[in-house]
Records
---
Amino acid sequence: MIVKDKLQKAAVGARQQAGNQQEQDVAFYLRRAFKDEDRVRVFHDLQLCYDGEFAQIDHLIVYTFGFIVIESKSIKGEVRVNAQAEWSRSYRQQWQGMPSPIKQAELQLRVLQEVLTNNDKKILGRILGIQQGLGGRCYHVLCAISSDAIIDRTKAPKEVAAKLVKTEFIADAVKDLMRLPKLLPTALRVFDTRPAFNSGELDSICSFLLTEHLKLRPEEQDLVRAAKPQSKSGAREVDVQTVDLWQVVEKTEPNPAEPIKTAASDTSPLVNGLCKHCQSWDQLSVHAGRYGYYLKCHVCQKNTALKQPCTQCHSQQTKVRKEADKYQVQCESCGYGWRVL
């Protein structure tokens, strides 16, 4: 099942255009393999944040037994991985080093784990009075490389080589990692001891991840239309919207004993973002300071810088630019840019 598609944006330069095409190719094979599989939920272009660390995940598989992060990498020519798991690539017959996409995917997976494990009570709830958790789940990473690239993995460590996959084989690699059983009653799966999510838990995980994504990408809310599901008794009420994207908006009743903190005393307009201190996302305003643009939180009264490391090459050499009411981060190392507000 495809939960979230990639928002198509105009590419700036040949490199970004090639990267977009590679992500579309991977998305094509994943859609063809899993669009009708209810035990597998697929996200494309998912952004998460935990404690000031950002992760932009090209492709995420949420399935019965866990999670798989897939990093798409567009490479023309040849790529080599040595015995120390260091990467190099050929460009116009010249060899140069490059960041490891496997390491990049592992960093993204770490943010995903932090986001999930610190919110497991919200996501999974209780069964028979016992708090459900995320312990024992499977967490994997894969790197999908352009089909026309040449991969030299003869000296690569086995655990690294196993994670490198040509684009056309990505669905097969995902199936090998998931090892989904045949549709048998749980009691008959005597040889598979992995803890499993049921369909309702998968729905809850996907809804939560989409909520977190939309806190960082509020502009994508315009892509959706309302489609409200049936809510379970005692469960929190949500609105789920979908066209190419599901949006989940939590509806909470205010506590009359607690006054709601707002930015009434501040004339700056409120924006949707994410406070790294208290995780508030709808009581923020943008300001320009000595060190650049930042978000002021009117709940905890602390600031969060808009400047972020590059989500592609992890360089710290980035700048925040404002165009009308939009804010974009531009990497000075690789040229990649993305909108943050």
---
Amino acid sequence: MKKYPYHDFIDKLKQVYSKQPFPDDAEYRACVRSIEYESFASPAVEFCEYVYTRKLNWFDCSWEHDILPLEEDTTILPYYIFSTPFLRYYFPMCLNISIRYFFGAYYWRNEHIGSEENVGNIDAFVIYTLKSIIKHADQLELKEKELISELSLLIRDNNFYNYEEEHLALCNALKTNS
């Protein structure tokens, strides 16, 4: 496997998304209003309420402390991540979690059922993140596409999971929308 230092990815992630201001009250209210009546959006609404009341920026949100403990199954959250400016602000969080996933941060805990540290269905969260990127590749800026191209190499070369189909679909979506 080609070595991609984890901190290099995180530094790039912070560079690409460094200028994003925290969403304001109006963006939060518009987000909740636009998705609250969708049949499967309640986990996304719960997430919005959680991060908004705590004023959590995208980098401070983690799978273990902020998403997994929520009452609803938030693995579907990335499906909605491009739907409103408020949720779009948290797209880098999905990338950060996915990067950690492909670096194996959750592998040991998932593979050893019965371990004390349950990581939930993070596999589904990562799949939804990749599918959302593929579906909305036309909305990505050039720097985001470059970062995601590097992520696709990590997906291809990682030692923990086989996401070859997703890797190819991601590459095709980035090529089609470049």
---
Amino acid sequence: MASAGVYFINARDALYQLSIINESFANELMIENEQTYSNTTIVLITLLVITLIAAIIIIIFLNKMITKPILSVNKQLEEIADGEGDLTISCNGGDFSIC
């Protein structure tokens, strides 16, 4: 019977050692997970800022590209309405078949 008690004590000690090793690995993985989370957060915030800056630049460019011709036509129509407008057509492109 004494040998059964020794086996039990050895098994208990082995399980205790395994639980210590398991806890150590769990702590290492938790630290690694926190670092990964932190790095991912930084990358996502950086991408968000870059995307916002790019969107603002695109909006400004498209705004100027769209509003400039509209304002030009508006000015010409106001001049025509006042009786001072130039009714000739100017072609700035290379296709003169539509002029």
